Structure formats: C-alpha cells, structure tokens
From TrEMBL:
A single cellular component GO annotation: cytoplasm
Protein name as it appears in the record: Acetyltransferase (GNAT) domain protein
PROSITE patterns associated with the record: GNAT
Domain of life assignment: Bacteria
Keywords: Acyltransferase, Transferase
Residue span, N-acetyltransferase domain: 16-197
Family classification: Belongs to the acetyltransferase family. RimJ subfamily.
Length: 219
C-alpha cells in the first residue's frame, strides 16, 4: 500500500489513491473548489483577524505541504481515482484529483498525535471514497509514522463528515467550544478519536472493508 519509505508517499487501494499535491493540480483544484463552494465552503477554515498570516495561493500551498511532509509535521495528499486501474508509480502520480486528505499538527514527544481533515467533490460523495481514504491515511500514521492518537474534528452541523466517522467507528470524545475559525467565525467542533490501543486488530481499512463486505487484500 505504500510506494516509498519517506515523503513523498503514495498510498493506494483498489483504484483509490492518496498522492502528494503537485503544482500541476492547480487548475483541477481551482475547478473543484469553485464547483463545491456550497458543498465545502461552510466548513472551510479561515484566518481570524490578527492571525498575522495571509491566505496561501495554490503554488505556495503545494510548497508548504512539500516542506512539512519532509519535516514530518504534516502530510498533504490529493484524494484521487486511478480510473484505468493502473498502479505503477507514474500512473498513480497522475491520477485525477477528486478531493484532499490532510494529516495536520503532527506532534512528537510525549503526545505522538495528529488530526485528519478531508473534503471530496460532491459528485463523488456517498460512494465510500472518503472513509476509505481516511482509513488508509490513519493506517499509515499508526503503522509507519508511529503515532499514538489521531483526531477528526467536525462542526456539529456538518452531516456528511459525521457520516464518515460513523462508518469508521471512531470514539466520540466530546465538544470543543469555539475550537477553529471556520467560514469567518469561531466554531464549536465535535472531536472523534482513535488511539493505537483502540485500533481494530487488522487496521482501519480492513475493518471498514469488512463491515462493507469487501475484500481487503488488494494493493
């Protein structure tokens, strides 16, 4: 499932691909964000007044994730589909993007934790792509990165994201009031957690596929 021992890393399973964002994704990324403004816009993070930062354009976003990936502090993947079924390195790297999965805030030391965020094109929603992608990312974080705790933080009103964690079966930990700045406001977030001790015996992806009645032995 892993193509390469260190960043950049490509993960794939049965035509679903997690590959690093690349500069040539700019047009597709802009197209998806425009087409999904009503679908993802209400849940987009924003910079609060006084943050001291400026919004990143796509080239700078790619460079930032490339640097953070090499540092081991964040993993920025394009969620893509290999529609022709080819699984060679170059074919996977060119798979068309349909969304994004990000492992952010990787913290070492005594914590060994990170958070996972995601979005997907509405036209591809409801097909099981997002739970499978998150499961792939989580297995990589536990098995390869060596993390102990992963979180998914969701606005209470974000029904589609809640359905993703319901399929994954992560533990609800509680509400964090005014946790993140979303769409121009400080918003509460529901927090879902998986620790290494709570993982299914064969991993997140195997559990998800088993519950869906699908085989898990494809690369």
């Amino acid at each position: 499932m892993v193509a390469g021992p260190s960043w950049p890393v490509i993960l794939h399973h049965d035509g679903l691909v997690l590959r690093p964002l690349r500069a040539r994704d700019a047009g597709r990324w802009a197209e998806l964000r425009t087409a999904n403004r009503d679908w993802t816009g209400p849940w987009d993070s924003t910079l609060p007044p006084g943050s001291g930062e400026e919004p990143l354009d796509f080239p700078r976003l790619v460079r930032r994730y490339r640097r953070l990936g090499r540092e081991g502090s964040a993993l920025g993947w394009a969620l893509a589909l290999s529609e022709d079924g080819r699984t060679g390195g170059r074919a996977l790297g060119r798979a068309p993007m349909i969304g994004q999965v990000t492992v952010a805030g990787i913290t070492r030391g005594a914590a060994q934790l990170a958070s996972i965020g995601y979005w997907v094109d509405e036209r591809h929603a409801g097909r099981g792509h997002t739970p499978r992608a998150v499961a792939m990312a989580a297995d990589f974080c536990f098995d390869v990165v060596g993390l102990h705790r992963l979180e998914i933080c969701i606005c209470p009103e974000n029904g589609p994201s809640h359905r993703v964690v319901a399929k994954l079966g992560w533990r609800y930990e509680g509400l964090r009031p005014r946790y993140l700045h979303i769409a121009g406001h400080w918003c509460d977030h529901d927090v879902y957690v998986r620790t290494a001790e709570e993982r299914p015996p064969h991993g997140e992806l195997a559990r998800l596929l088993s519950r869906a009645g699908r085989p898990s032995d494809k690369p």
